[in-house]
């Protein structure tokens, strides 16, 4: 067990670097078009250049950054029009994920989901966007974990990461922020209760809301709003 943990440590460090850099991009601390260097990022997040380099390769693949030869790393802008394509891909996978999770989650995971549902509601009541983002990541993680399908987990994590930046930029500024939290909390509680169809229905309602907000953002962008 210890040997396995020691072997996994470099991967864990790269994963932490990836999560932190992605978080800084999502919340706008690293804004679009900003030029960065590996050294800058390593100092900022407190780790070595090697995990930062690995994290940046992953973020480049996912579209968060561009790596410009002899210039540095540039944060890419949010592409609103891609959101509808992301949602179209995400919808069947997310419905499958929550349905499987309701059947396959263990007792620890069900208890954790109930705790996250309560914390989410407290974050919404306090209008704490930062805490909401943290809880949202944990919700996605535990739902995928409980579904117990590694291929589904790999694909849904990528889609969630790409969607999160749009969510933080556009949805948390509107009343859709709290409405989405209601569907998240209901989905969690349905999974915890072992009710796959209820979980799926709440998941569909959430994705419908995300699609409406995406379409509205696109219309406003086209009008120059």
From TrEMBL:
Keywords assigned: DNA-binding, Transcription, Transcription regulation
Domain called HTH gntR-type: residue spans = 11-78
Q: Name one Pfam family in it.
A: FCD
**Its domain of life?**
Bacteria
Q: Which InterPro entries match?
A: GntR_C, TF_FadR/GntR_C, Tscrpt_reg_HTH_GntR, WH-like_DNA-bd_sf, WH_DNA-bd_sf
Q: Does the keyword Transcription regulation apply?
A: yes
Query: What is the name of this protein?
Result: GntR family transcriptional regulator
């Amino acid at each position: 067990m210890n040997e396995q943990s020691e072997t996994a440590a470099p991967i864990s460090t790269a994963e932490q670097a990836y999560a932190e850099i992605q978080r800084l991009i999502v919340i706008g601390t690293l804004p679009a078009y900003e030029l960065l260097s590996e050294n800058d990022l390593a100092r900022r997040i407190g780790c070595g250049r090697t995990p930062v380099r690995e994290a940046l390769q992953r973020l480049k693949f996912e579209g968060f950054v561009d790596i410009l030869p002899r210039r540095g790393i540039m944060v890419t802008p949010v592409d609103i029009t891609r959101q509808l394509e992301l949602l179209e891909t995400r919808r069947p996978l997310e419905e499958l994920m929550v349905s499987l999770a309701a059947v396959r989650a263990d007792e620890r995971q069900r208890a954790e989901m109930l705790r996250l549902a309560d914390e989410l509601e407290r974050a919404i009541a306090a209008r704490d966007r930062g805490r909401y983002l943290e809880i949202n990541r944990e919700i996605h993680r535990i739902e995928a974990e409980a579904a117990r399908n590694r291929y589904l987990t790999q694909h849904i994590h990528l889609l969630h990461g790409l969607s999160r930046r749009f969510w933080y930029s556009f949805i948390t500024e509107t009343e859709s922020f709290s409405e989405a939290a209601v569907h998240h909390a209901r989905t969690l509680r349905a999974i915890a209760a072992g009710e796959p169809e209820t979980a799926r229905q709440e998941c569909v309602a959430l994705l419908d809301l995300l699609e409406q907000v995406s379409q509205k953002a696109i219309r406003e962008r086209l009008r120059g709003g």
